[in-house]
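Give me structure tokens for this 499-residue protein.
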Amino acid sequence: MNGGSPFRSLLKGSAVVFAGNIAIYLIGFAYHIFTVRALGADKYGVWGLAYTIALLPAQLSYAGLLYGVMKYLTRPGMTEADRASVLKASFYLYLGASAIAALLLCLFNAAAVGSLYAFPGLKPVIYIMALAAPFVSLISLIEAVFRSHGNALTIYKVKIVPELFKLAVIPAALLLSGGSLPLMAALTLISCVIPVLHGGAELGRLVAPLRAVWRAEKAGGYARAILLFSLPFMLNEYVYIFKEQVDMLVAGHFLSGSLIGLYRVSKTLASVLLFLPTALTYLLLPMLSRLHAEGKKEEFQAISERTLKYMIYAGVPMAALFLVFPEELLSVLYGPQFGPGARSLQLLCLSSWLVALYAVASNILLVHARTRQILIVHMAGIAVNIAANLALIPVYAATGAALAYFAGSALTAALVLALSVPVTGRLVFPARALWLLVYFAAVTAGCLFSRGRGAGLNAAIYASVLAATAGSAWLFEREELAKGLAWLKARTGRQGAAA
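Here you go.
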């Protein structure tokens, strides 16, 4: 941190992540629109189900290992030979786990997919996507290494190339092939290979020569140490990943391809709201860990609260846009056939917004080694999600899946926030932003329980949310805004003088 303000360091690092996320989301957003329009609701639903089934084992193969890799790469006193040994051990762990995951996926595809999901052409797509598991896993390893070195910029250089490839190639290929899903799977596989090759080259150039990694002699000991340290995190992430994907797995059994497509489009669009919590918490965990180790309790709480406050002020206007104009957004972006997914989009948008609460509170629990509590919360979320999906999807179709996902997300966020109170001694929450949340809740209720409001009334409602957000910032955060502007002005002045 170089002796500067930890929160400014967090913002500086988050700025790189924020810019990278914006670029990737914009490219991915354009790719998603063109792909959905090229496939249509029915084929996109089948693709979404195949992608979920194939991606789940790949995610599970590397879940939790990131923490072990980051711990051992950032240990003080590590020599170049030690780092090379850690990298070699990590490579074997990631590659071995992902190979097992790909094999199990193929066995599951051969034995059970046909009986669980009655969609012609689903199995060949899953077989192709199974080949992507090792590459998806290695992308996670490359990201862990660069995060350990504080090099967020290189991570996003590596990530953005395959997104550009997908945008440039896949929609055109779908149009020319009449929406071939096997072709889409093959091109998606190529997009997973690209960042591994690019990231591996950057890793050898900036972190450690690949020849030195290959010759490292202490990989076995580090592999055991990394695995043992990662085990609690692995179990937590297994449960969390399954909780996030169970809605698609259940919906795929009950719904038609077009309804699955409608739900997945809404879920993908709602995920745009996740880039803000991702950016602001990217460097939060190591920063909170350092403050906790140094016994700086007040600063620990202040940074946690300010991070959550920034999420609220930036997130409320974004979430309101999806709540007030859901049908318009879906129809304009994807076509009129997706307009009926408006209610699903509203509920899924609220679920994504709840991640802001979860992201900060879960980091607090992780710093205090409360992994068992997080595991219990995720298991409760899974139980609610599965039960609600089974009860609601047969009755309310895609809206039922969205409602079930929201119920699980709300329970998870509330429990994690409540469990953080005994750890910190008080609720880490920006109290002065509470009235803004109350107003946002009133707007949310009005939007959920009314329809056909008209463009003029919708515009007025959204304008009132913007005014409430700006008014709250002016009334309660004026001093902090002034400090931020003064810091920015001073920094700009120093850079101008240096030039």
